[in-house]
Specification:
Oligomer: single chain
Number of helices: 12
Helix content: 25-40%
Structural class: alpha+beta
Family: Belongs to the RtcB family.
Distance between the termini: 39 Å
EC number: 6.5.1.-
Keywords: GTP-binding, Ligase, Manganese, Metal-binding, Nucleotide-binding, RNA repair
Largest sheet: 8 strands, mixed
Strand content: 25-35%
Shape: globular
Radius of gyration: 22 Å
Catalytic activity: a 3'-end 3'-phospho-ribonucleotide-RNA + a 5'-end dephospho-ribonucleoside-RNA + GTP = a ribonucleotidyl-ribonucleotide-RNA + GMP + diphosphate
Organism: Asaia bogorensis NBRC 16594
Number of strands: 22
Amino acid sequence: MKKFVQTHRIDENRVRISTDNGLDIVLFANQDVPIDRASLRESVGIAQIHDTVELLRKADFLPESCSLKRVVLTPDFHKGSGIPVGTVLDARGFIIPKAIGRDINCSMRFVATDISADKFRSLGRELDDRLRHVFFAGGRDVVFDERQREAVMRYGILGLDNKTPMKGLFSVIDAEILECEFNRTHNGGSWNTQNNWMFDDFIRGSGGESRDSALGSIGGGNHFVEFQEVSKVMDTRTAYEWGIRPGTIGVMIHSGSLFAGGMVGDYYMDLARRLYPSNLERPKHDFYPLPLDGKYAHHAREYLNALGLASNFGVINRMCMQYMALRTLREITGQDFDSHLVYDLSHNMLFENGGDYIHRKGSSPSEKNDSFIEGHPVIIPGSMGSSSFIMKGGSLAEALNSAPHGAGRLLSRGKARGVTSTERLRVVSKVNPIGLRGDIRRELDKELMEEAPDSYKPILPAFNTVQSSGMASAVAEMKPILTVKG
């Protein structure tokens, strides 16, 4: 029999989820946000993690100071793999690799340009064909030698020191661009690591200088590169400061760390499982903590190092796609134009916070800091074909300084294949659909349906919850024009 999960609405934007052990779980969702019972039942697994931590303290596997302090669910929460996507955990004294998962440092990146939306719409099939070549048919031109590959894996953006001339796609990178990338990427786009972990083969590549086959990859699922029109500005002063102008084109990128995050996630999820005391019954939730102090602390430190490597890869991967998209536009239009990074914001990541570790799975930081006194950019995409928003971080303590990373899935990918339509979408995918056999074309359409608007919750209830609660405040709305899907 499926467990009924009791909830209590605190106010117009918050719902408290009842747990047997008193763990504080608060869901940010107004009355219009769809709340499915499967996701609520999955939240019970979070409470069971709390019980596991208590058990491991008594067994001296975790230090006495360890605790799962608080849990927040953001408005885009939906069923995941053990805990909902859209979960924020505040943990003291331990980290849980599975609470981050395999797509480490998956992020949203938004780039502003001064190209008019009308100009962009006038670009026809030539643009589509060129984007397909650049993203899927060997046109990336990402050139690194072994030293440069090691530098970007170990130090992210700081590994692009501009001392050795870059070739290919990154030949346009100069000190001014690197400073912008550093200042407008969360954590400076750089995690300082101690060693190469298991990435020596990738770093060596084919020996010497080579064109990279991994960097510049969108990935599958809900990842994308999307050309959007800035359709509405709500905060004129902030939009002006961030270089966002109505009627212009922006490029939004959603992608992660690909094979790098997969390797790190798989290895350390398995390690944490193997380290669990053999004399204790294994928890049904399958989430295993790594202690930050004591006998096994070195494993947690090694995980944080590997996490940094995957994170650095993810940043450079998105940076590649930014310049791939911009170079394609310059080649097709035959003109130069202004462009700059607005922000790159992670939503699958660990964040150290005064001795605690904030685990964000499908949720983003939403903060005020020294660089952005009034709040850094928060990027909330809609589903493919619906509006996206740029917002300003609110540092709402009740939300653990977090915000959603989208609207949240409504239908499973299997169900979405049968009930949605892609007719109104302009999508560039790996295969040109023109001239394909009917059965192959229909299969491609079904894959796109998995990410079409009807597969996701409506974006406005999530957006309104974020705005009304103070998680973040609205700056601009974007409408999609063309989406590149892996």
